[in-house]
Amino acid sequence: MSNQDANDDAGERVEQMVLLTERLTELVAAQAKSFETHRPLDAVVHGDEIGRLANLYRHESARVRSDPGLVSQANLTLRRRLVRATEAFDAVLARQQRAVNAAKTVTEGLVRAIAEEVASQRQKGATYGPSAATAIAPATAITLNRRA
């Protein structure tokens, strides 16, 4: 392969990685916005595409890490564009993580409040007449999944 072919291949690879990174950034930002605006069901709209692109991104990133020569021959402008796209992607991932953690905290609080209310309702007994005994419902376990 000639030096020009290697440069063209590296440039094409970097260009494709930039496009992939920018698309992932766009989708993850939309997903983060869904969580931030308390519309988590909207976050799943592009879930399949995000999963597919994230897997491709992971695969390509691993290839470049193991063989930097795959992109080193691309022109400097393209490589800088990839660096900027990657930085933007990292920032959006951090934003998404904060949004997901906030949604998780709210959800856990709601589940805990519901569980406490159910438990308090079950402990209230009913008596009828002066000699009636208080009936206390049997205790039941409520499990909270902390990894949700």
Short structural description:
The protein is an all-alpha fold and 148 residues long.
Account of the protein in words:
By secondary structure, the protein is an all-alpha fold. The protein has one domain (3-123). It is built from four helices and no strands. The chain has helices at residues 3-36, 47-66, 69-72, 76-123. Helix 1 (3-36) runs antiparallel to helix 2 (47-66) and helix 1 runs parallel beside helix 4 (76-123). The longest helix is centred in the C-terminal third of the chain and has 48 residues, at 76-123. The model has no long low-confidence stretch (mean pLDDT 84).
List the topology elements.
Elements: H1 3-36, H2 47-66, H3 69-72, H4 76-123
Helix pairs in contact: 1-2, 1-4
Spell out the key features of this protein:
single chain, 148 residues, mainly alpha, 72% helix
Radius of gyration: 26 Å
Please trace the helix and strand order, writing H or E for each element.
HHHH
Helix content: over 70%
Strand content: under 5%
Number of helices: 4
Average pLDDT level: 84
